[in-house]
Amino acid sequence: MSDDQEQVAADIAAVEQANTAFYEAMERGDLDALSGLWLPGENLTISCVHPGWPVLSGRGEVLRSYALIMANTEYIQFFLTDVGVSMTGDTALVTCTENILSGGPAEDGGELGPLVGQLVVATNVFRRTEDGWKLWSHHGSPVLTESEDEDEDESPS
C-alpha cells in the first residue's frame, strides 16, 4: 500500500470514528461531548436538518435543538447501516441509515414511555481541523415505508 493509500485509509477510519462518536454522544445524552464534535463556527456556519424540521443554522440553533431532543427523549439507540464515506481534501461525506429505537419521557407510573422504531437516512459532512474531524452539517430524512393497506389500494385495474 502506498503512503497516499495509507493516509486515505487512516482518514476514512478517523471520519468513521468521528461519526460513531456523534451517535454515541446522542445515545448518552451528552450535550458537552456532542458540542465538541461540531465545527467551532468561526469560519464555517454549521447546519442541521432533523426529520420534519426546517434547516437550523449556526452553533446556537443547532446545539439548542439537540438539547431539546435530549431533554425530551428518555432513551435513544442508533443502529447504523449502509455507512459510506467519500472524501475530497479536507471534507468528508458520510451517508448512512439510522435505525433508531427511542422512548419518550417516563409516564405517570415512572415507567419509560413506549419504545418507537424509526428509519432515517442521514448525510453527515465533516471537515478536517487541527483538533480532528468535526461535523459541518447533519441532514436526516425519514424513510417512508408503505403499509400493507396502501399496497392493497394500489392493485392494478
UniProtKB/TrEMBL annotation:
<feature type="domain" description="SnoaL-like">
    <location>
        <begin position="15"/>
        <end position="143"/>
    </location>
</feature>
<dbReference type="InterPro" id="IPR037401">
    <property type="entry name" value="SnoaL-like"/>
</dbReference>
<dbReference type="InterPro" id="IPR032710">
    <property type="entry name" value="NTF2-like_dom_sf"/>
</dbReference>
<protein>
    <submittedName>
        <fullName>Nuclear transport factor 2 family protein</fullName>
    </submittedName>
</protein>
<dbReference type="Pfam" id="PF13474">
    <property type="entry name" value="SnoaL_3"/>
</dbReference>
<feature type="compositionally biased region" description="Acidic residues">
    <location>
        <begin position="146"/>
        <end position="157"/>
    </location>
</feature>
<feature type="region of interest" description="Disordered">
    <location>
        <begin position="138"/>
        <end position="157"/>
    </location>
</feature>
